[in-house]
């Protein structure tokens, strides 16, 4: 009160107006640089470790890029379908690791490649010799476990006659394979190894029977909601270019 006693009401009004503009401007800058990041459980590329931290090969690159670009962010892991929907609907949201398929090109803004694209195989139990040496065209009577709405799911549904059994989590598909509830499981070699380790099983329990290269489109990317600030994406792109030249 003693400070304000020397100011007239007009001066006070100007003072409070300037304070409001200053703080609102500060919050606006923070809002512009805040990025919502979503991913899925897809070891070893992106997954939650035993300490509850989201880690993995892709996560390491994403965090390096965002920190270098001085962008505030939070990463959340969801089942793939939910993560994909959030990235499509929520502005300033980025999803990784995601394949840039023809169907998805116009749904997002893209930065590619994030990491080298892994190959996808149809794995079978090593004990299922009756499934050996078959081709995709011979699987019309067989069932393949896939992640719902991922590239293997889309490819198999539109290009083969196989029976597709979709789940939201890869570990669910792995358990189905081990229990004999499905004939094959679509997976990368890296992810299959992680599933085997997590269950404490022998690494010879499954074999990669059929490579489905057509279901592994390149590249593997970061994809941004269409309403994401272009300036924010440009900052990340600059850091990606620098990282490639290191």
UniProtKB/TrEMBL annotation:
Keywords linked to the UniProt accession: Signal
Tagged with keyword Ubl conjugation: no
SUPFAM superfamilies named among the record's database cross-references: Periplasmic binding protein-like II (SSF53850)
Record-linked Gene3D superfamilies: Periplasmic binding protein-like II (3.40.190.10)
Keyword DNA-binding assigned: no
Record's signal peptide: 1-31
One Pfam family here: SBP_bac_3
InterPro entries per record: Solute-binding_3/MltF_N
Domain Solute-binding protein family 3/N-terminal: 38-240
The protein, known as: Putative ABC transporter, periplasmic substrate-binding protein
Classification lineage: Bacteria, Pseudomonadati, Pseudomonadota, Gammaproteobacteria, Alteromonadales
